[in-house]
Amino acid sequence: MMVYLVAFSIVVLLFFLIQNKIRASFLFVGLVLVYYFLDLITLDKMLHGFVNPSLITLVLLLLVSIVFEKTSFIAFISNKLFSPSYRYSLLKMSLFTSLFSAFLNNTAVVASMISVVNKNKFHAPSKLLLPLSYAAIFGGTITLIGTSTNLLINSFMIENHLEPLALFDFIYVGIPIALLGAFALLFIARFLPNIKVDTQKQNYFIEAKVLNDSKLIGKTILDNHLRNLEYLFLSEILRDNSVTSPVNPNEIIKKDDILLFTGDIKHLAILKQFHGLKLEDNYHTLNENIIEAIVSHESILINKTIKETNFRSKFNASVIAIKRGKEQLSGKISEIKLQVGDSLVLAYGKDFLKRDNIDKNFYLINDELKIEKKLNNTQSIIVLGGFFLVLFLSFIGTVALVKGLFALMILFIGLQYISLGEIKRRFPYELMLIIGSALGVATVMIQSGLANNLAYFINNVFGSLGVFGAFIAIYLMTFLLTEIITNNAAAALAFPIAYSTALSFDSSVLPFVMAVAYGASASFLMPYGYQTNLMVYSAGGYDMKTFFKSGIVVSVVYSILVIGLIPLFFPF
Fold first, then answer.
1. What is the rounded (10 degree) CA torsion for 160, 161, 162, 164?
2. CA distances from residue 285 to 123, 244, 373 in whole angstroms, order as listed
3. Residue 171 within any structural domain of the chain
């Protein structure tokens, strides 16, 4: 009976994760609490997941990454990457991104690189941004600390009294993936659109209201010179809850009309020349307080309208433009239901960056907003040197990684490279809740016998192919899960099945664990599976077809390497 109950709960969890209407942290925490109330897990076991050494290590790494974002290294080196040769530029960018992503937070690396890619004078950003995201994913597979998924897997190892993974256990598969993956990116270049920077912003959806005293009232679109603006195009007029589209040049402007433009967000100031035309709910100094933000996986805005969320009071900012890949949006901005990956242009107030909810809801990608003061070269060297010293001492076994990172954080706080306010604002509460509770869910899956039953099923189906067939099945299962739910959720659900499958074949657990780790990182087919894919989705002007075609090629190369190399270095 218990097995059926746990199985039903996992199916319900999967259903809601795929729907993406409830935050993953709420789902996992809610499920582990249900298990506790049903006496399927003890209080000690449930709480133990939240103090797992690998989880603490992950939190410290993410906080240390905040200091790295302030250094001058990434921006300095990345400016040297691009040359007239597209293939050479792409290879250099891919390898550089993979190297940094092996040790630093992928989101921070990609956020720093997007602005550099957009400013390069040789190649269209659309030919580089998707490869940038893929290269960051490749880099995350090189080390234990390269991605949160690897550290989550290590947490499961510790919880199940297995030998923890070492810092460089992943290099044997991760380095070939980064190197050969870079050449695979040269092949997918043929699928990437060649969108010039000037036209790349044309899908932004900008809303302006005609005020009661406007001099535009009573005159036609043509007479008001709104027809042939250089950078903005009047696509719709919203009047009395009805939409006029396309707009006739002889259409007469009336008071309270809402004019909907598409165009380049850098030229919003053009609208200032029209008397009585105002961007909806915006602040006054638009040239000084504009930022582009991507709606994150964890955002409370998903499937809600701007009006429903009380956006302005919650974030001290207002949405003046919105973009969703190549999709043509329509209607009033405040009534559009937001989705994961939507790119918003915000006019923000003074305390925007100080609010605790910004990093939880958005990926900020506009480098013109100076979020924090940059460290000078000497300070940057101290940060880099200190970090790699900790890694080296951990590698040779002198100092535990978690202890070294604690010492490093204390040093950074003492040197005022990071403040306690920043730590509070950027603390990864969501990720900590997901991983801590996911460890409890995995424990119940194993103890209830559900993982064993699923392993028995895999054994029956793939038994004729032996342990290698079961290994491939675990990899493909995780690969598919990570495309429809988040990578950490995929790893959390796949690990107990992989663990039980290894035991059922009397095999080493390690190759099956690695199959889950690499399968959970294999998010290439869709923009919504991984945060860096989301960040480049609208910025590159991509559509789902481009992602899928490119992702198929990369997925095949990646999977062949994973399936071929893991058994070679981690025998059954």
1. 100
2. 32, 30, 22
3. yes
165 and 21 within one domain:
yes
Residues 550-570 have pLDDT tens digits of: 889 999 999 999 999 999 999
Q: Which of 244, 252, 289 is nearest to 269 (CA)?
A: 289
| Domain identity same for 44 and 127 | yes
- pLDDT tens string 253-266: 888 888 877 766 66
> Quick one: 185 and 42 in the same domain?
yes
- Looking at the DSSP assignment, which residues form a beta bridge with residue 258? 209, 238
Q: Within a 10 A sphere around the Cβ of 1, how many other Cβ atoms?
A: 5
Reading the block at residue 107, the tokens are 């989101």
What does pTM read for this prediction? 0.76
Q: Smallest Cα–Cα separation from 326: which of 40, 547, 104, 73?
A: 547
Residues of the chain with pLDDT under 70: 74-76, 78-79, 196-205, 228, 230-231, 245, 263-269, 280-290, 325-326, 328, 330-332, 366-373, 463-464
For residue 32, tell me if it sits in a domain.
yes
Residue 164 and residue 80 share a domain: yes
Could you tell me the residue range of the domain that residue 407 belongs to? 377-416
Q: Which of 392, 429, 431, 430 is nearest to 408 (CA)?
A: 392
pLDDT in tens, 507-527: 899 999 999 999 999 989 887
Considering the domain architecture, whether residues 471 and 390 belong to the same structural domain is answered as no
439 and 394 within one domain: no
